Amino acid sequence: MKANTQKPIGVFDSGIGGLTVVRALLELLPHENIVYFGDTARVPYGPKSPQVVREYTQDDVDFLLSKNVKMIVVACNTVSAVALDVVQKRAHLPVCGVIVPGAHDAVRRSVTHRIGVIGTVGTIASNAYSHAIVQEYPKALVYSAACPLFVPLVEEGWTEHKVAEMIALEYLFPLMTKKIDTLVLGCTHYPLLKPIIKKVTKGTVQLIDSGEATAAVVKEMLIAQGLANTSTENPNVQFFVSDAPDKFTHIGEKFLGRTLGVVKKVSI
Q1: Is position 147 annotated as part of the catalytic site?
Q2: Which domains does the chain have, with CATH numbers?
Q3: Residue 178 has pLDDT above 70, yes or no
Q4: Where are the beta strands (DSSP E) in the chain?
Q5: pTM (2 decimals)?
């Protein structure tokens, strides 16, 4: 069993955003080994058809399985929305997506249960967050908005730029008119925009970081299944991408909040 506990957690995303989930995992589970795969050659998944996303997901899972992981965390909101069943059927391991933990946290923390959700076009079109929130609290009122320009803004490093503030106001104003008290950041890039979002919403809404909520669920799952790493040594965290490791490294350190070390390019 000890050998199993020391196996890494496998985390994957369509690109770089999933590093915010890794960051949350490292903060909550500082001794867990992690293997991260970003499918940077085929990013973004958000605008692609569900069928294509499901095909890509099979490749992502197979790569992580080749690294002998003990569980898989789907850090991609789009995959969590349209292909979580693909991961579960293919992996035969504990699997955690980001949508159910985020929805649960939103319901738990909202007072009025008027909840906003922002995400990519694909995630919002799937209604996955709305379904998960209403399933947990049927009387909840959920208002969603796709924010496609947020991802390129974050990757450009314009998280505190005046342009980002103007675009955030444009996207969020319709949600604010619905008197939401809680806003789910339904894309792994969006936590880097928290300061702008707080400014635009004047601090009137609670921001739900799905990555942080997911890390909490992962911890519970590992403990419940006897898979938590009891070692107190520094973790071995490995990063793999399908294209352009230099670009990933440069931008990724903003997402992770620390240096990445060596990022390896692999073919899948």
Answers
A1: no
A2: 2-97+212-265 (3.40.50.1860), 99-210 (3.40.50.1860)
A3: yes
A4: 9-13, 34-38, 71-74, 95-96, 114-119, 141-146, 182-186, 206-209, 237-241, 263-265
A5: 0.93
